[in-house]
Specification:
Rossmann fold; alpha/beta; 451 residues; globular; 14 helices
């Protein structure tokens, strides 16, 4: 109760409406699918209507395709007439994505992501977006057993471009909610030991972060023999969560892992695993998530490309935005009682596609094999040329050299027998500045089908 009172006081001082949005989302999560769909469609119409009136980029695009927001009222399928949006398109037309309302523009704050190339991608968000993002974050935490005031520690990446004002704002919000942020960039034994001691001091709570960072922490706890912290749950996101990672984290900390999926552009978590652990529920109140194959919605549980419309950021709209991820729907009911649609855990980013000598674009299944292989502590797969793949492996004493032949065979089966596979054995593979571990990537120019 005290933390809720602190949050109420924080809102009075800042004008935020996080608690109001949180209470709203705690109610809407139990709506029927028909009710959620109606709510989503109404918010989609309001977003598109706003873009039609105030956002130059969409004013131009709607004219070019002869589209009017009322077309959505006549037939929701008209939504598919809108073109897919890419990060490159936004960069090329950045100013045109801003609302023309002067008063609103003065209230917006910047957000940035590192992007797959490491080049910062900057966009703007409004107050509604910030409040809904935080509130939905809190709602997803309740699925892990969290209540307002429960200690929550998350292993985050470096935010080197954050302004002093933003850092102060984040610190105030962390204090208000009893959140604690630790650096996931420098995962050496000393910092890991310090984190474990911090978790024990903070008491029974929840730990969050990138799966790769949490996996390193779990392995440290097991191998060092330190007393494990008392955790309610572990919350993973921002990367693919491999089965081996989930198993080790759950075994080490004696609690369940909750997977989430999303991005800054989509308002944080677009989908999250509930307490039933049968799939990831899509947050229909704040986003419209599509899974497409060749530009059209997939059928059943077929996998496809993830495309998201952010329903809560009117003033810098992301409409049908390509996240460059692969996912699939789960066509089933969840025992938890929530009727929002579910997706399976995301299996990989489409930016991990490799090109072959004969002109194919492929995704290798080698990532999961390497994670399951005995003695592989870290790995990274890099395409250096059409016919050259470099596999970097950090080994321990359990590593079986015979695995190298199997890895070569799997890669050549996918890429072609003419593909050369070289191995490197570094002492470590550092994470990127955001704390994410890059498992595979191509150094070839134009390696992705959208480039």
């Amino acid at each position: 109760m005290m933390r809720r009172a602190i949050l109420q006081a924080h809102q009075l001082l800042t004008g935020r409406k996080i608690l109001h949005r949180f209470d709203e989302l705690m109610q809407t999560q139990w709506l029927s699918w028909d009710e959620l769909y109606a709510l989503q469609q109404e918010r989609l119409y309001r977003l598109v209507d706003y873009a039609y009136r105030y956002v130059p980029y969409y004013q131009r695009v709607f004219r070019e395709i002869d589209f009017h927001p009322l077309d959505l009222r006549r037939d929701p399928a008209n939504f598919y007439r809108l073109p897919l949006l890419t990060k490159e398109e936004i960069r090329a037309n950045w100013d045109q994505f801003l609302t023309t309302e002067p008063q609103v523009r003065r209230q917006m704050v910047s957000r940035s992501t590192s992007g797959s190339t490491g080049e910062p991608f900057v966009f703007l968000v409004d107050h509604q977006h910030r409040d809904y993002t935080t509130a939905d974050y809190m709602r997803h935490l309740t699925w892990c057993g969290w209540q307002i005031g429960t200690p929550y520690t998350y292993m985050a990446g470096q935010k080197l471009d954050a302004s002093l004002k933003e850092r102060l704002r984040n610190s105030l919000m962390n204090f208000t909610l009893n959140f604690s942020e630790v650096d996931a960039y420098d995962l050496v034994d000393e910092s890991l030991d310090s984190l474990v001691r911090q978790l024990r001091r903070r008491g029974r709570g929840i730990l969050g972060g990138f799966p790769s960072a949490l996996y390193v922490l779990a392995r440290f706890v097991q191998e060092s023999g330190v007393e494990r912290p008392d955790l309610l749950a572990v919350r993973c996101g921002g990367e693919v969560l491999f089965p081996k990672q989930r198993r080790l984290i759950e075994e080490t900390f004696g609690c369940r892992v909750f997977n989430w999926y999303g991005s800054y552009e989509t308002g944080g978590g677009a989908a999250c695993e509930c307490e039933a652990h049968t799939g990831l529920h899509v947050s229909m109140e704040k986003c419209l998530l599509e899974i497409l194959r060749q530009g059209r919605p997939v059928e059943g549980e077929e996998s496809g490309e993830v495309v998201v419309t952010n329903l809560i950021n009117f003033d810098f709209p992301f409409i049908r935005y390509r996240l460059k991820d692969e996912a699939r729907w789960l066509v089933r009911e969840c025992p938890c009682g929530r009727q929002s649609p579910m997706i399976a855990p995301v299996t990989g980013r489409t930016v991990e596609l490799f090109r072959t000598v004969d002109g194919r674009v492929v995704v290798s299944d080698i990532n999961e094999f390497l994670f399951e292989a005995e003695g592989v502590r870290q790995f990274q797969i890099v395409q250096k040329a059409l016919d050259l793949i470099v596999v970097r492996i950090v080994r321990d004493e359990r590593f079986d050299p015979a695995s190298l032949d199997k890895i070569t065979g799997i890669i050549q089966q996918v890429m072609g027998r003419q593909t050369q596979v070289k191995f490197e054995f570094p002492d470590e593979i550092p994470a990127g500045r955001t704390g994410k571990q890059k498992y595979s990537y191509s150094e070839l120019e134009g390696s992705q089908p959208w480039e």
